[in-house]
Amino acid sequence: MTQNPLLIGKGLPPFADITTDHVVPGITQLLEELETTLSQLEENPEPTWSGLVEPLQELQERLVWSWGIINHLMGVKNSPELREAHQTVQPQVVQFINRLNQSQPLYKAFKALAESPDWDSLEPAQKRIVEATIRDAELSGVGLTGEICDRFNAIELELAELSTQFSNQVIDATKAFSLTLTTPEEIDGLPPSLLSLAAQAAREAGEENATPENGPWRITLDFPSFGPFLKYSTRRDLRETVYRAYISRASEGELNNFPLIERILELRKEKSEILGFSSYAELSLASKMAPDVAAVEELLEELRTVSYDAGVQEFEDLKAYAKSQGETADLKHWDISFWSERQRSEKFAYTDEELRPYFPLNQVLDGLFGLVRRIFNITITPADGLAQIWHPDVRYFQVADNQENAIAYFYLDPYSRPAEKRGGAWMADCINRAKIIEDGITKIRLPVAYLQCNQTPPVDGKPSLMTFSEVETLFHEFGHGLQHMLTTVDYPGASGINNVEWDAVELPSQFMENWCYDRSTLFGMAKHYENGETLPEHYYQKILASRNYMSGTAMLRQIHFSSVDLELHHRYQPGGKETVNDVRQRIAAQTTVLPPLPEDAFLCSFGHIFAGGYAAGYYSYKWAEVLSADAFAAFEEAGLDNDSAVVSIGEKFRNTVLALGGSLHPMEVFKSFRGREPSTKPLLIHSGLVTAS
Ligand code: ZN
Asked: 675 by DSSP, 3-state: which?
């Protein structure tokens, strides 16, 4: 019998060999083995680093290796068969993780280690790992016994199932809607790129002869289709149809997520009470950089105050603009994208579409790689063929230091594949950096990252031509990747993004986005894909000018989501008089200019907080943006074209934020880079909401 490829336990995942049939037997066998190992370890745990932390880490890594591949495939190669297999084994995995986190003997050994004479000889990274383990064990209910403990575990299990179900229902509801257009009147205003994509979608749905010129065209709720449709379609009635379908995703019938939300909030509340917290938000913040709910609310309120009037003014301007263009109706939600795109393109005289030809993926990658070479002194080269991939479009790259030594690798899966790939963009770890012993030799295991985007795929023989915002997304995910790949921590428990507080995780990613606006970076990559012509200067000026177009509205939107999330996890009473939608509407009164429609069911597709890790943590984007804007300001203060300054500040950034990762508290890491605590001022200046003085 050949070995189950899901059980190899080390190295790059053998994607070509893995099939759905491996999942259930593989995970079942793995859990049996790990169970035995864990029991042996529990028998007489020695409270030392090598006697406790190392063997435990080895055990965890075996689980993470196998289970990580399955979760990865759930995100990028989803299928009914895989889902079923995942669902079959997930309860056992959750149970095992609970048993691990709640192990009394291990917890006691960790406590003993923290109090032992050895403690002082540990490095800061090791101490942080031990402290985080103790904290996480406590948050996982290690102190619970008897019935309360059983109840706690039942909650965890149900929450894991609910979150998978929530996410699957969003995927299914997104797929369930489509609008097929057949006449020139129906496609009025749509750009060629969307017509190509829509014809391709129609072909995939069985309309073999669909062409970009003659249709039929299939509009879906997948973002690359939905987003441009709302921006460009001149058919107000069709925009309304598509918008209403979008905001009601997963909110009724068999795919209704409302009952799931209610249940999730109820269980989270119960869980936090069992652990002795007054709310789930307090529980969530116990492991974050922000000290407490009050500190988060204070930041949100500061940002809200600065952005609200700007948002109101922006909406007034938009209404006046629409009126001047002959629009007689009041502006509704399905008009906002449309009119703001027109206003923006008139004000700044370009459209997103005009810029696409200057941003073919390959050149954008060259630009990005050139930038990180300049500021971080690393070299990135293609390494396709050195790793198995899960789809032919996936690329593989090597990262090398200035001595040409490989220090990391990453996969890049750039394109949207709505039928099998989760929406949005993300970075995930495939392999963590670690010091390991293999065949008696100590060596460094190099980190490997997964970078996932959902940008417009190549259509009709053209390369993937990116919108400027797709370029920003790629830079963003690459920023996460840099923190994972440039870590110098040799303990997987704190290397890369591991053990970095959630609300500090977006620092490197949002930091990287800023570089899309840097002159030399942008001109280095923006060249017409057909004739190589550099992006004309006037476009650059317009990109800069339009950066803060409706920035008050954009800021308010994030504050709205953050505040709703926090309220639902801090003060909301499940089953009470107020529904989750009531909460949202109440908060909308302070945080939106055009309140959501009463039937708006956005919460039903708010996967960040109901299926991802952002529960009572959505504020993290803004919290981290304060850090990232302030970090970028260090470069601006020195001058972005001051090469020697950029190199030395870049080196400092690499050696602190990117290298130290989770080995120190994020406030310490930030201070070691910036020399002081973070300030909100650079964020407000970058957003154009206050002027630099
Ligand atoms: Zn991010």
From this structure: coil
Q: Say which residues have a Cβ less than 8 Å from residue 612's Cβ, sequence separation at least 6.
A: none
pLDDT surpassing 80 at residue 2: no
- 302-318: b (≥16 Cβ within 10 Å) or e: ebbebbbebbeebbeeb
Tell me the average pLDDT across 363-376: 96
Measured in angstroms, how far is the CA atom of residue 621 from the centroid of ligand 1?
8
Q: 1 pLDDT exceeds 60?
A: no
Q: How far apart are CA 257 and CA 605, in angstroms?
A: 8
Whole-number Å distance between alpha carbons of 652 and 377:
12
638-642: Cβ within 8 A, 24+ apart: 640/518, 640/519, 640/520, 641/519, 641/520
Ligand 1 centroid – CA 509 distance (Å): 6
b/e per residue, 174-190, with b = 16+ CB within 10 A? bebbbbbbeeeebbeeb
Strands (E), 405-558: 406-415, 426-431, 434-438, 441-445, 448-455
pTM attached to this predicted model = 0.85
Tokens of residue 106, six digits: 């291990």
Judge contact between 144 and 103, C-beta under 8 A. Answer: no
Catalytic residues: 477
Q: How does pLDDT run across 617-644, given as a tens digit for each residue?
A: 999 999 999 999 999 999 999 999 999 9
Alpha helices in 103-181 (DSSP H): 104-115, 124-139, 146-176
Query: Do residues 148 and 274 lie in contact, with contact meaning Cβ atoms separated by under 8 Å?
Result: yes
Ligand 1 mean position to 382 CA, how many Å? Answer: 24
State the distance from the centre of ligand 1 to the C-alpha of 514, rounded, in angstroms: 14
